[in-house]
Amino acid sequence: MVLCGGPGERLWPVSQPWRPKPFLPLLGPVSGFQAAVALAQSITAGGEVLVVGAADHRDLIHEQLSSAGVSAKVLLEPAGRDTAAAMAAAALWVRNCAPDGVMVALPADHHMPDTAAVQAVVNSAIKAADGDRLVVLGLHPRGPSSAYGYVCPGSLSPGMQRVVAFQEKPSAERAAELIASGGLWNSGIFIGRARTFVAEFERWAPDILALVEQATKDGVSYSGDFLLGPQFANTPRLAFDRAVMEHTDRAAVLPVDFMWSDLGSWTSVLAASDRDEGGNSLSPGTHAVGTRQSLVRSPAGVQVSVVGVSRLAVIVEPGAVLVRALGEAQAVGDVYPGSIRPDRFTSLADATEDLGLWLKTAALPLWATVGMDAGAFREGLTWRGDIADPYRRTLVQARQAFVFASAATEGIDGPWAEAALRALGSAVRLPNGLYASRYDLSGAVVDPTARLYDNAFVLLAYSALQRLSPVGGASAAAAELRRALTLFRHPVGGFREVGERPFQANAIMHLLEATLAWEPISDDPDWRRLSDELVELALTRFIDPATGALSEFYDESWSRLSGEANAIEPGHQFEWAWLLTRWSRMRGDPRGEAVARRLFNVGRGGFDARRGVVVNTLGPDLAVRDAGARLWPQTEHIKAALVLGEREAALQAANGLVAYLDTPARGVWRERMRPDGGFVEEPSPASSLYHLFLAIRELARHAANL
């Protein structure tokens, strides 16, 4: 197995979260990962190569596997949790596939050019693993170094030795003492039977093993890969050495002597590189005059010259430059930027308070004043709070009516009830009992099309008005509108939408949202019957049993469309997960929540850790298709994570969401994030306040458990 989840912070700025150290060609035409999988393939002798890496790096993994001509099974981590969790996942996988299998764990970012020597010593260690030992390769040190960990063997004799102790990156003085007493460099290469790894995890790190086992059960298979479930992100961030090897009595070390470097700093990159007569390593196009023992790297087309310096690292990348004394290269982590923006919230309680204040003191007041005109809500406002209002839509009036009526019901101070009543009253109802799609600023209908999607939100708005005033007539109006929806009925079940793709999950989903909202406030049994019908359609037709994913579009028999039409939107996986979990708990039927957890895992597959957000669209193979990130999937991420008890994911989602609220005028938002982390400059659509309100309300409702 090859571990390739490390961030490589000390090699910034070349190593970045979206292109970390294992995938960089630091010493030649191939990356450390490509060299590692080629070595793994030569060691297996007909066995299987297993790769454990970050879900965010899936495309990099497959691109480089293909270039190396190696086929491998890939386990994808939803979040990086250091080597203990990765080793546990690999050991469980190997044990389940081959109970007597021996696992050789190779780092993806180390330099081991003498592959024949490595293969020979690994084969010796494999024989020792037959005795249920966990073997680590220990390298004879070439001198005291505080950059490496040390393994202390039980004696100075050659051959396999029991491990007395591990020492993580000691001082230079302590390193010299360790070497004098026979200490070896810890190579990070471990060999043992998978069942022995699992047994020692169970003995010394049972909390890690239990969470990883759950992540394995909740994981999603697609296109030959396996995405571990969200519980993986809850495992302690701990190295395998610390979690298991420092405690087990099965640890053994095999002293070896081959060329090796962990390439953990620019100093070690220089030491492993080809150098000129001055001891310099220069990339093509760079120049050095009167310079010694220096490393200069720059991309093609960028000219860099260094004059009269020694022991200096000059690393140039588009948008970032590092100039640092090589003796200080281990400290590059001090300036490593990590993700493109820091987390604002350290707890869900902080997120609940901060976002709640934003809603109460900024968003609701702004949209109830500047955001309204003649009793109707405006279509949008700019980031500076200026008006952007070309027309009126029933969708906006219904969503805003729901938000403001709900705010009044929740006891948030303000004139919200009146705003809600006036907004819904401005929507235009047609003679058939349905609501028109669009009208101009004077109220004249410009698009008389009645859409299932829009009318579902009118039903939802009526439910909020019913909660606000049970005797106000909302119940009768909603029942009448529900009966009018029979015009959308499809003969084989469910409802059709108007337009080119009438058989879609999205409109059905929001109709379900409305019926679930009506159930607890109405004694009309038709709400419950309709909820159950829609859920049954989702459970039996919308969800792919193989992947657990829900598609967007279907044919007239409610079979999933193939090809480009079979899009997977992470935001809708989360929305359905939220609704199905609520239905499941209302009915006491476990099917809904079981499906919801699979949907949540699929949605999490679209989480981009670098930006801290969920992307717009995945393809049928669950690979990222559209790396842009709209606002609303972030709110649905929060809702689903909270209802399913995934607190760390909820905190990640809240930190992702808050970036969208950083606007010149408080109370508006940025709607669309580009793949590079910037935002498309466009007005804030009023329709998104519905998504924001529900996410913030869910945070408040779960506050007692935070």
Task: Give a concise summary.
The chain is an alpha/beta fold and 706 residues long. It has 21 helices and 31 strands.
Q: In percent, how much strand structure appears in the residues?
A: 15-25%
Characterize the main sheet: 5 strands, mixed, barrel
Rg for CA atoms: 29 Å
Numbering strands along the chain, what is their spatial order in the largest sheet?
A: 5-8-6-7-11
Average pLDDT level: 92
What does the overall shape look like?
A: elongated
Task: Note poorly predicted spans.
Answer: none
Summarize the amount of helix as a percent range: 25-40%
Task: Determine the N-to-C terminus distance.
Answer: 38 Å
- Helix/strand/pairing class, anyone? alpha/beta
Number of H/I helices:
21
Total count of strands: 31
Topology at a glance:
Blueprint: E1 2-3, H1 32-44, E2 50-54, H2 58-68, E3 73-77, H3 82-97, E4 102-107, H4 115-129, E5 134-139, E6 150-153, E7 161-167, H5 172-180, E8 184-193, H6 194-204, H7 206-217, E9 220-222, E10 225-227, H8 240-245, E11 251-256, H9 266-272, E12 281-282, E13 286-289, E14 295-297, E15 304-307, E16 312-317, E17 320-325, H10 348-369, E18 372-373, E19 376-377, E20 380-381, E21 387-388, E22 392-393, H11 394-409, H12 416-426, E23 438-439, E24 445-447, H13 452-468, H14 474-484, H15 505-518, H16 525-542, H17 570-587, H18 590-604, E25 607-608, E26 613-614, E27 617-618, E28 624-626, E29 629-630, H19 632-643, H20 647-658, E30 672-673, E31 684-685, H21 689-701
Parallel strand pairs: 1-2, 1-4, 2-3, 3-10, 5-11, 12-14, 13-15, 14-16
Antiparallel strand pairs: 4-8, 5-8, 6-7, 6-8, 7-11, 9-10, 16-17, 18-19, 20-21, 20-31, 22-23, 23-24, 25-26, 27-28, 29-30
